[in-house]
User: Fold these one by one.
Assistant:
Number 1:
Amino acid sequence: MFGDAKSSRRRELRVRADNPAADVRGPDPSLHVKRRKSYLYPTEFLQLLSSENVPVRWARIYALAVYSYGRAGEQAALTCEDVDLQARKIELVKQLDAKTGELRETKESAKYAIPIEPNLLPLLEQLIREAGGKGPLLQADRAAGQVHGLPRNDASAKLRRHLQMAGVTRSVLFADDELRKPLTFHDLRGTAATWMALRGDPPLTIQQRIGHRQFATTQLYIREAEAVGQGAEIGTPFPPLPARILEPVRRGGRDKKRNPLFSQRVFERGGRDLNPRPPA
């Protein structure tokens, strides 16, 4: 805060000539234990999306989160116009502010594109058809409390609940102790990074697509993938999506007005993202 008061990029915030906190030491890092995160195996992901107990709307949200690498604000702001089916890429030029519910530039004002995962293409085509070719990619559902804005309350808990309803019960996904944290919605982004490493994508490609500022962060997911033993039966990364989420959605009971995708009551970023993606 004091750093911004002295040297913010926004001139109107520069109200001091000094930073009184410049010499203040931060907390002792040795006292902080960073809890281990988890990720979904491709087999578990397919089990989640295939389950009739998981609403199609949510299955689509999870699919888009993993296959577009899971930055929530950018995902919530996606429109049909951002998807270039001809060039097989998604333009990321804006994000939905979690606090204000307003659209703004992406972090660091970066404008970039990511390639469309081949098995995401059928879902994108269906979403665009349902939206009439323009406006927000996913439809609003006011019957479920969906409003304009980025939901922040319990999407992580909902994800874990949906996993259990789908019969995905691997204990590490739900562990919550001093050394481990339960799976969050934001960990779908880590799932994507780990899958890319499992697939053998070049490390720098993973870093660019996920948007890690430091390569050391990318290496965490590469090491996670390297820990998977030969002959492991966890499935193939980014598999074809289940037919149930590619079929037309009946509009009965849904608000036909198109708004950003999530509900103010049911989404949680799962932690602040400090890694803005660089331009492609």
Number 2:
Amino acid sequence: MDAPQDRRASGPGDPAARADFVRRLVDTEARIGIAGLEEA
């Protein structure tokens, strides 16, 4: 996983990188949540 690298590379002064990181994080959580619902 390259999440820690992404967080280090995108400082608070880089909103575009931050938005991209958040978007990917939400997408990952959505996929995990969907998988959890399918298992239940």
